[in-house]
Amino acid sequence: MATSLLTRVKAQVDLHTSRRARGLIQGRGRSLFKGSGEDFDDLKFYQPGDKISDIDWKATARSGEPLIRQFNEERVRHLSIVADTSDAMAATAADGSSKRDAMVLAAGLVCFLAQTNGDLVSLVAGSPERPVQLPSRSSDGHLELLLRSIQQGTTTASPAPDSAWLLERAFRVTTRSTLMTIITDEARPSPDDFSMLRRLTTRHDLLVIRIADADPLLADDLDRDVIDIDAPREISELSRASEKVLRDVQAYRDARREAVSGMLDHLHVSHLLAQGATTVVDDMISMLRRREYSHADR
Amino acid sequence: MVMSLWWLALLILVLALAVWAICFWNRRSVRRSPVIVANSAFLERIPSFARAQRTARALRAALVVLAVLGVVGSAVLSGRIATEHVQTPKFAQRDIVLCLDISGSMYQYDTEILSTFAGMVDSFDGERVGLSVFNSTSRTDFPLTNDYELIRTQLDHDAEAIDFDEQGYRMGTRQYPEEKLRMFADFIEGTRGIDDQASLVPDGLAACAQEFDQADTDRSRSIILATDNEVNGDTIYTLDEAAKTLQDRDISLYTFYPGASECSQTCADELKQVTEAHDGHFYASSDPQAIPSILAQIQRTQAVEMGATPSVLRTDHPLAGWLLTYLAVLGLVLAGWRSR
């Protein structure tokens, strides 16, 4: 097999974050996903299989035996990813990249940060006909499987998006309180999902990452056809080149985005709208930084 | 309406079809790979988009229709649509006298000749027609005239009047209404001037020759004589003399002999011999149905005699094709420019 997905995502994340993110992921207490704090419990002898990074070197130096720090159970945080693996996510993003790649990158960043912290990550994805669900695990293999499930589950042959089902499913199967990252596109979660989202916020800490869609008119590249994944139909050049149509379409899309953003703001859910694979990592890091400050303020 | 360069028109149509087929099969390969987008179902709900799509569809349909019209128009134009009419220049100066023997044995043939001639009047243009009937004496039914309305009504009327089986009526085997009797009586009025004589063919023919007027003008003159030549009485002229009179006056004689009769072969032979001796033409048929074709033959013979070789006149009609092509191309340019 080629390079693992996680490694590739990591490389991408490194490339994008470089120095900026280094501080964010150094040390437990300064984790991006700031939890309940450093609930140090006990020291215990190192057992094969424990993480090398958990070794408390100072204590080891004092005692002469490798000791690792033991934390409270709640210290191990649970992350969950709710990925929209519908066919809509296999389409093109606003920056011309694939929305799926952007989604894998976003999920990869979550996994990457979880890996550095030893957090557990679970996945909810799929469709009513073929639900996908992965339990909370932290191993590299698990994270790799998780990313692959997202990547391979999102094809143009996937069913049409059903955000109501996905959120309901996420609520039902994720019983433990988690930091939940929902990855979908600009049109979702729709304002119809408001009550479901509110129920989710009662149990989970929500992050919503939305990938913007490509312009359905593609007015600057009339040589290429535009095909809607769910409603394939011919869009005439006349419609695509018309200034008025362009304005009206833009207005509609802005209104739709605003409606979703407004709903999420109302629910006090952190959210972002990324243009695609080129910006999603940067956008996520900015958002997480903002979150960190706001948490610190509390 | 004929199309002289029909193969060119066909070629243009086939070529257009071939070009269309090639374009049709390759229509997708011109475009680059499509961009797949999502969440664009809302487009249909945007009025300006729906309107633009409708306009584009209408324009495309218009383009197709205009292209088809343009191709058809140019094909028609290249095919050179023209009307052809056969013109025999000298025919307009013909004088024709129908010279009918209306003795009892001839009535079927006379009916056929008259009704066929009535049908031919439509194609006349300048010709003059006259009708003279004879039995023992001769009567001019109508003189030479180019009043075709009169000719037609008169011929139709006469054709009906002469359709009368006199012998059958006398023997009581045929019954006719009063009206029909009067029509027949009116028609034969004046043709039985000499009692106990009938079918004085040479005198009748000579009388027909008197029909021609305008002796000083250069006109073609012909007599169509229909008779069984069953002379029953004393004639002033002999048949040969009568025919000679015609020849002297430069009148062509076309004789129709209706086949077997009582005097049979001798009468036929005499008629044929005399006719042909004076540069006439002799036709014989016992079938009244053959008369239209015989009259057509007479027409042709006459044309040859007059040296009027029928020439085909072609008149091109480019206006419709030109207009169609011009408007279609104009429309194509406009619609194509609009859909840019």
Describe the structure.
Chain A has 298 residues and is of the alpha/beta class. Chain A folds into 2 domains: 40-75, no CATH class; 78-297, von Willebrand factor, type A domain (Rossmann fold). Chain A is built from 9 helices and 9 strands. In chain A, the strands form 2 sheets. Chain A has a 6-stranded mixed sheet, sandwiched between helices. In chain A, a hairpin with a 4-residue loop joins strand 4 (120-126) and strand 5. In chain A, helix 1 packs parallel to helix 9, helix 3 runs antiparallel to helix 4 (140-153) and helix 5 packs parallel to helix 6. Chain A is elongated, with a radius of gyration of 21 Å. The termini of chain A are far apart. In chain B, the strands form 2 sheets. Chain B has a 6-stranded mixed sheet, sandwiched between helices. Chain B has a 3-stranded antiparallel sheet with strand order 1-3-10. By secondary structure, chain B is α/β, with parallel strands linked by helices. Chain B is built from 11 helices and 10 strands. In chain B, 49% of the residues lie in helices and 18% in strands. The relative contact order of chain B is 0.15. Chain B has helices at 6-25, 47-79, 107-120, 148-162, 166-170, 178-188, 201-209, 239-248, 264-277, 291-305, 318-338, and strands at residues 2-3, 32-37, 81-87, 94-101, 128-134, 138-145, 220-226, 251-257, 281-284, 311-316. Chain B has 2 domains: 2-30 and 40-82 and 317-338, no CATH class; 89-309, 3-Layer(aba) Sandwich (Rossmann fold), CATH 3.40.50. Chain B is elongated, with a radius of gyration of 34 Å. Classes of the chains: A alpha/beta (298), B alpha/beta (340). The A-B interface holds A 87-92, 99, 156, 161, 185-187, 213-216, 218, 221, 223-231, 235-239, 242, 244-245, 248-249, 252, 256 and B 31-43, 45-49, 52-53, 55-57, 59-60, 339. Strand 8 (224-228) of chain A pairs parallel with strand 2 of chain B. Chain B: Keywords: Membrane, Transmembrane, Transmembrane helix. Chain B: Residues 95-298 form the VWFA domain. Chain B: This is VWFA domain-containing protein.
